[in-house]
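User: Here's a chain of 432 residues. Predict its fold as tokens.
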Amino acid sequence: MKSINVGLIGAGTIGCGVYKILNENSEIIEKRTGIKLNLTRIADIDIEKQRPVDIPKRLFTTDANEIINDDSISIIIELIGGTTIAKDLVLASIKNGKNVVTANKALIAHHGDEIFSEAERNGVEVAFEASVGGGIPIIKASQESYVANNIESIHGIINGTCNYILYKMSEEGRDFNDVLEQAQEEGYAEADPSFDIDGIDAAHKLSILIMLSYGVFLDFEDIQVEGIRNITPTDINFADQLGYKIKLLAITKAKKNGLEAGVYPALVKKGTQLADVSGAFNAIYVVGDAVGPTMLYGMGAGMMPTASAVVGDIVSIAKNIGGKESNLPKLYSDKEKINLLNLKESSNKYYLRFQVEDRPGTLGKITSILGKNKISIESVIQKGREKDGGEVPVIIMTHESKEKNLLSALKEIKGSKLPLSDHMFIRIEQLS
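Assistant: Prediction complete.
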């Protein structure tokens, strides 16, 4: 039986899950693979803190270099996160001839090209299944199952925090801040939730999916990113009345002249697969020219689902140690092979909400400006004034229109003398 020694850098939640699986499921792993995985060393800055699993103290060190420089260790797992120290440790491991497994989506999104190039030079593997979708095997599917396809589009619910918040808002009629506070109390959101609710986490993951599907790393800053802070119960309620759910989607679409890519809230028709993804679950809807529409679904985060993906990567690398074939992503050398399109040039149907004082002629002026900017209206909902007056929402659903025309119309409406206090537009994604 092949025996492989493994070192772990970072004994946080996911690291503890990895230890738990390797300790408790070692027998089934050995039976299925013929490989014995030995977690021989763990590096963490705090070796005294209480952890959700009982790890022997003899395994711990506070010096990650002890693991990197240990000739008996073949695979190093990086689970500390971030893009500074983690990058240095990963590159040092690779240069020292170590294979690397990571769950670090920010690291791969920002520095994956450098890391993969260094790994190729040193003849080692880098695996990162847990970086997107937790326990969902989207990385392996992208590298293997979809390899014969031109990927036409990807629509992903790949941030469990945002999906949990939007789901709770929809089911319970509560506002964003109230649900966010609950998500923090229940461990779905960090104390500083900005990375999640502003769409950055999902954009990191989208960058990785684009790399695997189209062979290039985009400059991360070029991906248009919008979060969910401005979604209100009013928007949730009207979307529901119109037959939609609001989801934060990470989207890429292949067009004849390039690639559209962005993270933003979108209306998804009720009854479709993505609309039905509830709570903190993730789902990734991929359309290939040969395979057609497919969807992968499961827990996108959490100790055990993510640890499961990490251990799967360890096994894949362990099987290939000593082999001649590399499993590193195959990237194009010419980044200009993919032209990233500005979303202003895209066309969509749109949900528009205007918060206005209920005065005669207001709706007519709004629709007039939209029409002047080539925005065709499909339907309108205008709530009547309350007894004591005040503002009312005006909801407009458009036909497919150019986004740049819509933005021009909204700018004109905002600059007019209309009694408008707020407005919102949300794209509508038309999926089967």
